[in-house]
Design goal:
There is one protein chain. The chain is mainly alpha-helical. The protein has helices at 28-45, 69-87, 102-127, 135-143, 168-190, 195-215, 217-227, 229-241, 251-275, 284-297, 311-333, 338-358, 400-424, 426-436, 438-443, 448-474, 492-502, 508-523, 531-545, 554-560, 570-577; strands at 5-7, 14-16, 381-382, 385-386, 391-393, 396-398. The strands form 3 sheets. The chain has a two-stranded antiparallel sheet. It is globular and about 75 Å long.
Length: 587
């Protein structure tokens, strides 16, 4: 196997023409072996006891059986070993690093180091000193330092060559395995039983995901998914639908339902913020409009109206009322721009909360019961299927929360289809044009006010749909559930953060951002008064090092890194060096 190493005059990055080089002229082979040995040593250390007492959660006292945080270190060590061997060109593993191994190994080595040292330090802090560590803990700490030799590896980043064509059945099998692994990783994060394990999971998941992305493996699997779009969509839906059947209790299913509600609303806000570029700080009010509308017409004993409509009618009415509110609020305000629009939308959110809080019969008409809200909202009943009862499906028990989970999954699919269709439509292109440069878009004949009002109305409608399900799932609606900011999602601040954190203008970005922003405060509850401090620091660090979001679109990534010598994606780096693709695009 031959390689062709050339120096780029702009950034001194070696360009490798071969798809899978084993070594380079700077002697990366020995260093790869060192990193691989460090990964194996890290794996071996997890089979030793790290502490002698079971007071630290996870039972790290057993020799020969990894437990708790040791499992995360085990996974990190295995990843380091496999990717180091792939960098050596070991047959059967070369497909792991189509874009190079050095950058991927640096992140994976940091993941192994961070997870291990976090565990060792947590044991020492919680139990009162290093004396509570068994020799295995010190062995693990030293072993996890060895893979950091990856930082001495020369940069072998390369443009991935066209992969070998696989049979259709092999590509489908690969997608199924990838979705199964991804679903297992998400399920593991949701079901972490204590805060220390969740923090270790975040460290490994964050750095591990960065490593997989740098290796080019994620891009290659994404390309296969794009080629088999329908199969990929079915596999993703099947993996998500299987989640409630893997749970023995309803604890994590409830969390999953709330994440889906939050993610659905975030995707609706993404229409307004991500596509049209409008800063909306009161978006949670539209969720509240849908929820209160559903509560009033669903037969609640506390409702001011003696009405009990079927669910399909409730959804239509909730979405329509939210649409009306979106138009009524948007029509007089969307001629404003920037900060002025943000202030007006923030005011609308507060007006909604105060209004429903005052409709108690004393300060206003008796409609919403004021601060007491509307309780006793009955469980959904769709064509005779009672969501308040347990059902059996093909021999599997389907609890009431699992039923709501599957319903919200269908709602999520509906919202994703609406978003993707709108994004690729003529009006979607107009939104993007308005977002990039409203003056230029107007000069090209786009009616800025009309297309912005459509975005505002569509976003409000999608939030109203989610609100109708939320009302039945929660069983009650309260004014305090729809505030601008607070420690519990969803609220307007968290919704906006989910869109920006995940990646504006994308579908997967807000879904991932919403899941993280719901899970992190939930899992950091053990920090008590320092919960929001840790949460805020995490957001600051992420926005500092990943301002374009976790899953950005290519335009945003190029705009944020147009002055960088080395962009994350080799194809984008080439475009930047040639002066192509770094300018803002219009519609």
């Amino acid at each position: 196997m031959t390689t062709d190493l050339n120096k780029s005059p702009e950034n001194e990055t070696p360009v490798v023409s071969a798809d899978y080089p084993s070594t380079d002229a700077k002697g990366s082979g020995p260093l790869h072996w060192v990193v691989a040995a460090g990964g194996l040593a890290t794996v071996a250390s997890t089979f030793l006891a790290w502490t002698y007492t079971s007071e630290f959660p996870g039972n790290l006292t057993v020799n020969g059986y990894p437990g708790g945080l040791q499992v995360l270190t085990l996974v990190a060590g295995l990843l380091v070993t496999l990717f180091a061997l792939s960098g050596l060109g070991i047959k059967g593993l070369r497909w792991l690093t189509p874009a190079g191994s050095s950058k991927a190994l640096r992140f994976l080595a940091l993941g192994a180091f961070g997870t291990t040292w976090y565990t060792v330090l947590a044991i020492a802090v919680q139990l009162g000193g290093l004396a509570h560590l068994e020799p295995g803990g010190f062995v693990a700490a030293v072993a996890s330092l060895i893979p950091l030799a990856a930082f001495a590896l020369p940069d072998d980043t390369r443009t991935p060559s066209k992969p070998r064509e696989l049979p259709s059945w092999a590509e489908i099998l690969l997608l199924v395995v990838a979705f199964a692994i991804g679903m297992y990783a998400v399920t593991y994060g949701i079901s972490t039983e204590y805060g220390e394990l969740f923090i270790g999971y975040l460290i490994l998941a964050g750095l591990g995901s960065a490593g997989l992305s740098k290796s080019g493996l994620v891009a290659r699997i994404s390309a296969i998914a794009s080629k088999n779009r329908q199969i990929a969509a079915i596999a993703a839906f099947a993996a998500a639908a299987a989640f409630p059947f893997t749970q023995t209790t309803d604890t994590f299913t409830v969390i999953a339902v709330n994440i889906l509600i939050f993610a659905t609303v975030a995707l609706g806000l993404n229409v307004v913020v991500g596509l049209a570029g409008l800063l909306d700080l009161g978006y949670v009010a539209f969720l509240g409009v849908g929820a209160y509308t559903a509560a009033l017409v669903s037969g609640s004993t506390a409702s001011a109206f003696d009405i009990q409509l079927p669910f399909w009618a409730t959804v239509v009415i909730g979405a329509f009322v939210a649409l009306i509110f979106g138009v009524v609020i948007g029509a007089p305000t969307l001629r404003l721009h920037g900060d002025y629009l943000a202030i007006v939308t923030l005011g609308f959110g507060e007006i909604f909360r105060i209004t429903v809080n005052n409709m108690d019969g004393d300060n206003g008409p008796q409609i919403t019961n004021g601060p007491n809200g509307i309780p006793n909202i009955p469980a959904l009943n769709i064509f005779g299927y009672d969501f308040g009862e347990t059902h059996n499906f093909l021999g599997l028990e389907l609890s009431t929360y699992a039923s709501y989970y599957l319903l919200m999954l269908l709602v999520m699919v509906f919202v994703v289809v609406v978003f993707s269709r709108a994004q690729d439509s003529r009006i979607g292109r107009a939104w993007v044009a308005i977002r990039e440069d409203e003056t230029a878009a107007t000069a090209m004949g786009i009616n800025g006010f009309r297309v912005k009002l459509i975005a505002f109305a569509l976003g409000a409608t999608l939030a109203g749909v989610a609100g109708t399900v939320q009302a039945h799932f929660q069983g009650t609606v309260l004014p305090e559930m729809y505030i601008f900011a607070g420690p519990v999602a969803p609220n307007s601040a968290f919704l906006l953060a989910a869109v920006i954190l995940g990646g504006m203008g994308t579908i997967r970005g807000p879904l991932l951002g919403a899941a993280l922003l719901f899970l992190i405060p939930e899992k950091l509850a053990f920090l008590k008064d320092y919960q929001l401090l840790a949460f805020g620091l995490a957001l600051i660090l992420l926005m500092r090092f990943r301002p374009e979001g976790l899953i950005p679109n290519k335009r945003a990534q190029l705009e944020f890194h147009e002055n960088d010598d080395k962009l994350d994606v080799p194809e984008q780096r080439v475009s930047a060096e040639s002066g192509v693709g770094t300018a803002k695009a219009g519609a």
